[in-house]
Amino acid sequence: MNKIVLLALVLIGSFQLAYAETNNDITFKQVQNVQLNCKGFGELTASEYQYDEEFSFIRLVDDKKNTYYLPFIGGNTAYLYGDTMSGLTFSTDHGDLSKKSFLDKKEWSDQGKENILSYDCVPLKKKK
Question: What is the pLDDT at residue 65?
């Protein structure tokens, strides 16, 4: 299985896309309604949005009914970082969101690939 790093790019305008980066530079569009099969986590399904005063979230539920939150900023822009050792870690350019039901307090810069963790994760086809 290829090592894949997911990173949603901040794009100004109505088209804000997520991409998956691998050795082959495989891409897919929009984190919303995309299923991810991540080693150590089972299948993660973007099942619904959850909102609060400042941020919106996609709620991911794995095959063991564990729940993870994927933050969206600017309405549609997500940052997802993680590895199979420490669990999923989320960060945005607004700073660490670990106090909002996140698994880890680590913060990762979105400036440069050296700051992004790799993990075994395969994007599955979008839900219809």
Answer: 55
Amino acid identity, residue 69?
Y
Considering the entire predicted model, what is its pTM? 0.26
For the chain, the maximum distance between any two Cα atoms, rounded to a whole number of angstroms, is 39
Could you say which DSSP state residue 117 is in?
Answer: -
Q: Which stretches of the chain drop beneath a pLDDT of 50? A: 2-58, 61-62, 71-128
DSSP-derived secondary structure for the chain: --EEEEEE---SSS---EEEE-TT------STTEEEEETTTEEEEEEEEEE-SS-EEEEEE-TT--EEEEEEETTTEE-EEEETTTEEEEEETTEE-TTTT-S------SSSGGGS--EEEEEEEEP-
- Quick count: other Cβ atoms within 10 Å of Cβ 109? 11
Asked if 32 and 40 touch (Cβ cutoff 8 Å), the reply is: no
Structure tokens at 120: 């075994």
